[in-house]
Design brief:
Two copies of one chain form a homodimer. By secondary structure, the first copy, chain A, is of the alpha+beta class. Chain A contains 14 helices and 18 strands.
Chain lengths: ~475, ~475
């Protein structure tokens, strides 16, 4: 068999076509597990979801096991290793945990009861990441069930803590460094601009997270009786946070921009290929006006520039009507997106210093460090990238584009550090998938093309060794 | 009978002494109703509480009825009018509604299961206002049950919307102007510095309330994918609010201080009589440092200076762990305390203008006006005030002091406007009663002395006509 001639893949593609309706059923089963890693109440659901995944992997012919960690379990599934000479090894990474679905009332249907409308499948985790990851499992199933030779040894590593910082994955990779040794890691957990523009993502933003609490009086106080004599923790918090960003979106923290790699002319040209006008983008987001750092297009701002975001605010009375109090404390959840080549440890340090400098003596500041991940950049001209671009083009029937992505996949840097493996980011999410938002969905077209792309990828990667 | 000789009151005082244990039971019954006016879920509890009150008033010999309003009902209870010549009429005002008890987890015992520890009775509403108001009912009960002549015609007006701005009371007073015509209104809903310093309150702060919401994208957005291209509504809210107050506690809104009456030398001297050091006050509140407008003592700041307070903040994800979103919106509950002679309508106008001026074009601002009340000032040298001071001194056995109070009783100005009646504010709350806070309590000593003060008050007021 000549792996440069891809005719032998046809039975695999036929199998994918014949089973496409059942693949949707499989995905719906997978999506029914409310595998929310951030919430302790879903611990049993996490375990049940991991168990379902292992059972599924075994049914399609993989050797699969659940690996316990200090947090949520990791599922590992391998293609059976034959007696033939060693083939090139690749990892396929995915995650079975999902973002919290709150606020539930904004969902048109139950986030954990998958609903199909047209060519969209609505459910929490449909796009991020269950649907994208299952596409790869389906492609491998097609190889195994049609007895078509896979010219690569494949190992799926599917974790349950991606949405909470992949706490356990690093030590798991270290402990299983030998078994998991690979040429590269294939990950579909990013986006593509449209079905006509499949994308290879060559850079990612990093992230550092904090939870900041301002403590004032030892209890909520009557604002009439005591107001005017104690600092209001909610106001103190607002006054601290307000100083962290200027009105053009630039982060106002000394040292924060240290190391930021400015965009090259070539990169700015690639970014400009995105087929989305600022007017359409504004409309899609539903904002009165776009906003962002001066001197950059929105495509550059969201992928190649660092940011500060307040993810949540909590203080005092939030119920119906009013409650005339000075609240005892006020909290904010903060994340900062980082770009190549910011150093997360340095960024954390300058943020902590700035927060402490801004805190007045009338309140007490408590800062909890949350998850973090380094920014990532890989050469789009490498053989690895070229193999991915080829599979994308064949499956989607359109010339793929090179993209920077604004999101963070902290584990990409872990793979680099621990396994010395680059990552191939072949994202299948469309811009309107509502990842992390109510009414998350996954395109059934992306699901099908994604499986084909997965099937076409392995001969390409086998070729480069 | 000579009403200048108070010996005839002795049977009334004896009755109060003999029944003091049963009066505690009555108060506990009253406190078991979770009469939270702000929360729609407690509507039935509100009605049940009003019903209990009417039944109780009838049992002690009053003519009582529940009056429906557009909101929560008002209980009216009158002493039986005899055939003797008309006596001077007085109103006694109180409220049976209470503040929300949230956050429940900070209560040492169920807020609606009264608990006695030493000389304190713990329950939501114990001090504000069920205990204080029931003391007056008990005093009148003692007159009626001992057949001691009351030289005044008394009408209790006990409403259910004080904690949500007394929305219905104004129109109720207007509709019943004739029946409710009175010389003055007696109200125990304020505070006293200690059992050795009973107090007459001669001034109150007013209040205006707002709920401010900043709307950004039409849904929560993934902060990695979109962060940097849209304004963050939580940050926009913080930046707006941060500009409303300077770091010394002065409200930063043009026109806000228009009309503020500066304190006279005499008033500052009275304020200085408060037997509380700044160090003890700071310790009592549990703050790292006191805070407030420069040039005023804490006693002046909390009673005679206007303020801004953030009562609550809400935005985005507030659960466990993190959720990497740009939230769709962010809200704040705000109250401003006003002092004589600020005009609430003018203050509302300048606040609205300031909020709109501060809002950037990248988000949409929604402002809901909440409840409001005018500040109040009455002469402490009037015969009315002197009668109150006399009753306080006799009941508590100590020289009372004259106070300004930081809280708001908006209806005091309603009584003035609609019934042309001054209010006599004879507060029975101690500084550590935790009104509006978890673990609210009422001192059983204040309860007993309060009943005696109530009993001694009517001959005094009858005397001045």
């Amino acid at each position: 068999m000549n792996i440069n001639n891809h005719d032998f893949v046809q039975p695999v593609l036929d199998y994918l076509e014949q089973n496409k309706s059942r693949f949707i059923d499989d995905l719906c089963q997978y999506l029914r597990y409310p595998s929310v890693s951030a919430q302790a109440g879903h611990r049993a659901d996490m375990a049940a979801c991991a168990k379902w995944l292992v059972t599924h992997c075994r049914q399609i012919g993989l050797e699969a096991r659940v690996c316990s960690t200090g947090g949520h379990p990791i599922v590992v599934a391998r293609t059976p290793r034959g007696r033939s000479p060693k083939k090139p090894s690749y990892l396929i990474y995915g995650h079975y945990d999902v973002q919290p679905a709150e606020p539930f009332k904004l969902w048109k249907s139950d986030p954990f009861k998958p609903r199909i409308e047209g060519r969209s499948l609505f459910a929490r985790g449909a796009s991020d990441n269950k649907g994208q990851n299952l596409a790869h499992l389906n492609a491998v199933e097609a190889y195994l069930k049609t007895n078509t030779e896979l010219h690569c040894d494949l190992t799926f590593v599917i974790e349950g803590e991606e949405e909470v910082g992949s706490t356990s994955l690093g030590s798991f990779l270290k402990s299983n460094r030998k078994e998991l040794a690979c040429r590269a890691v294939v990950i579909s957990d990013t986006g593509m601009p449209s079905l006509k523009l499949p994308a290879l993502t060559y850079a990612l933003r990093g992230v550092v997270a904090f939870e900041v609490t301002v403590h004032g009086p030892s209890r909520d106080l009557h604002s009439g009786i005591y107001g005017g004599t104690v600092d209001n923790p909610a106001m103190a918090l607002c006054q601290i946070l307000a100083q962290l960003r200027d009105k053009q979106g630039r982060v106002n923290i000394p040292g924060f921009y240290d190391g930021v790699a400015e965009l090259s002319a070539h990169e700015r040209k690639e970014a400009a290929r995105l087929p989305l006008s600022a007017a359409d983008y504004r409309k899609f987001l539903g904002v009165p006006e776009l906003f962002g750092e001066r001197g950059y297009t929105f495509a550059e701002q969201r992928a190649a520039r660092p940011t500060i975001e307040i993810n949540g605010l909590t203080s005092g009375y939030q119920g119906e009507g009013s409650k005339t109090i000075v609240p005892a404390h006020a909290s904010a959840k903060l994340t900062f997106r980082l770009v190549p080549n910011q150093d997360p440890a340095h960024v954390r340090k300058v943020i902590l210093k700035r927060l402490r400098d801004l805190c007045p003596p009338t309140v007490r500041l408590e800062i909890k460090a949350g998850h973090g991940g380094e920014p990532y950049l890989v050469s789009p001209r490498s053989p690895l990238a070229r193999a991915g671009l080829h599979a994308l083009k064949e499956a989607f029937g359109h010339e793929p584009i090179l993209m920077r992505e604004g999101g963070s996949i902290p584990i990409v840097t872990e793979f680099k550090k621990i396994l010395h493996a680059d990552s191939l980011l072949l994202g299948l999410a469309l811009p309107d998938d509502n990842a992390h938002s109510p009414n998350e969905k996954f395109s059934l077209d992306c699901y099908e093309k994604g499986m084909q792309m997965g099937a076409l990828l392995w001969p390409e990667l086998a070729r480069i060794g």
